[in-house]
């Protein structure tokens, strides 16, 4: 008998936090109505945790475990995980998250199958064990309180829980591993849209996220360095209008300095500038970094500044630019 269920590769990156990872794996295994493969990529967990992970993954043939000796970063790990499967859809699930029930991915597949040009589906993310939306996982332009329960097209998705079509993912050669950490979803979203795909947020597919809000909003100097580095690199890669790039970079520097992250800010800026040559090389070899008339119209339709004057846009950006929420010492 032929299996007509949609084929889904569920990818989970693991790095310590083994108890949470095992529960994420079990949550993925519980998904019904799909032909599933769970791909776990361990990025260098401690030996005792890794042994526990190996034992757990050996219990079910649907689980495929890859063990790295070093951390390849989020985009590198996700690329490696995707290469292990052949499913029509690729799902990323954070290792501290779980699906709220066993029917979530079947619903996601049904939604994806209705729209040929849908490249990514962004899931609703709740605080684990509650009906409260995880505001630290809300990166959309819309107000969370008004839009969390509504479906809408967007120009981004959140990495903690989402589905991609393999055709779209492979068509743009996956994630940019050079980013290593932070903004890999922004980069992939831009390239998907430039390639003619749409991204939709849905409140119908839900995961519970376990990371506390207090932990998520605190930034360290190292995290801020990656933030500045990658935003600078992406300005070059996507050929941001020069005055716009300068304005946003100045805002980054102001935010970093105001928070006392002087060296982290300058380090990130320097590293981003040093990455400019590889960003520029993308202009010739990667068509998905170039905006088309169609993608420009799509981005404009998603932009919170649509219809605003230049001064109104500047004023909005200045109003929303806040100091970095730095992790307190001690």
UniProtKB/TrEMBL annotation:
Cross-referenced Gene3D superfamilies: Spore Coat Polysaccharide Biosynthesis Protein SpsA, Chain A (3.90.550.10)
Glycosyltransferase 2-like domain segment(s): 17-169
InterPro entries: Glyco_trans_2-like (IPR001173), Nucleotide-diphossugar_trans (IPR029044)
Pfam family of the protein (one): Glycos_transf_2
Keywords: Glycosyltransferase, Transferase
Protein family membership: Belongs to the glycosyltransferase 2 family.
Record's protein name: Glycosyltransferase family 2 protein
């Amino acid at each position: 008998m032929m299996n007509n269920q949609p084929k889904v590769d569920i990818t989970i990156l693991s790095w310590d936090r083994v108890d949470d990872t095992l529960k994420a794996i079990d949550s993925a295994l519980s998904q019904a109505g799909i032909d599933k493969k769970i791909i776990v990529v361990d990025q260098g967990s401690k030996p005792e945790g890794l042994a526990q992970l190996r034992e757990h993954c050996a219990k079910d043939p649907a689980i495929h475990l890859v063990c790295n000796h070093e951390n390849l970063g989020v985009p590198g790990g996700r690329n490696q995980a995707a290469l292990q499967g052949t499913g029509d859809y690729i799902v990323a699930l954070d290792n501290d998250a779980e699906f709220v029930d066993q029917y979530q991915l079947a619903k996601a597949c049904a939604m994806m199958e209705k729209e040929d040009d849908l490249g990514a589906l962004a899931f609703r993310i709740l605080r684990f064990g509650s009906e409260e939306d995880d505001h630290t996982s809300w990166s959309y332009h819309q107000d969370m309180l008004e839009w969390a329960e509504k479906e809408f097209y967007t120009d981004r998705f959140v990495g903690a829980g989402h589905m991609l079509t393999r055709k779209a993912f492979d068509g743009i050669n996956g994630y940019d591993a050079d980013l290593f950490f932070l903004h890999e979803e922004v980069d992939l979203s831009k390239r998907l849209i430039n390639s003619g795909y749409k991204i939709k947020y849905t409140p119908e597919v839900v995961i519970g996220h376990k990371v506390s809000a207090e932990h998520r909003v605190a930034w360290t100097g190292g995290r801020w360095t990656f933030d500045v580095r990658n935003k600078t690199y992406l300005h070059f890669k996507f050929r941001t209008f020069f005055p716009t790039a300068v304005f946003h970079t100045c805002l980054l520097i102001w935010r970093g300095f105001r928070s006392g992250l002087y060296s982290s800010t300058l380090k990130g800026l320097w590293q981003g500038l040093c990455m400019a040559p590889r960003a520029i090389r993308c202009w010739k070899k990667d068509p998905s970094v170039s905006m088309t008339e169609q993608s420009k119209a799509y981005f404009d339709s998603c932009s919170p500044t649509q219809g605003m004057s230049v001064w109104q846009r500047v004023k909005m950006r200045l109003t929303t630019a806040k100091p970095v929420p730095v992790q307190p010492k001690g």
